[in-house]
Amino acid sequence: MAHAQQGDRVRHIGAITSLSSNDPEGQARYAAFLQELQVLGWSVGRNVQIEYFWGEGNRDRSRKNATELVAMAPDIILATGSPTLEPLLQATHTVPIVFVQIADPVGAGYVNSLAHPGGNATGFTAFEYSIAPKWLELLKDIAPNVKRVAVLRDGTSAAGIGQYAAIQAVAQSLGVELRPIGVSDAAEIKHMIDAFAREPNGGMIVAESGPSIVHRELILALAARYRLPAVYPFRLYVTGGGLISYGQSTIEPYRLAASYVDRILKGEKPADLPVQAPIKIDLVINRKTARDLGVTIPDKLLATADVIE
Question: Of the candidates 278, 276, 159, 149, which has an alpha carbon nearest to the alpha carbon of residue 212?
Answer without folding.
Answer: 159
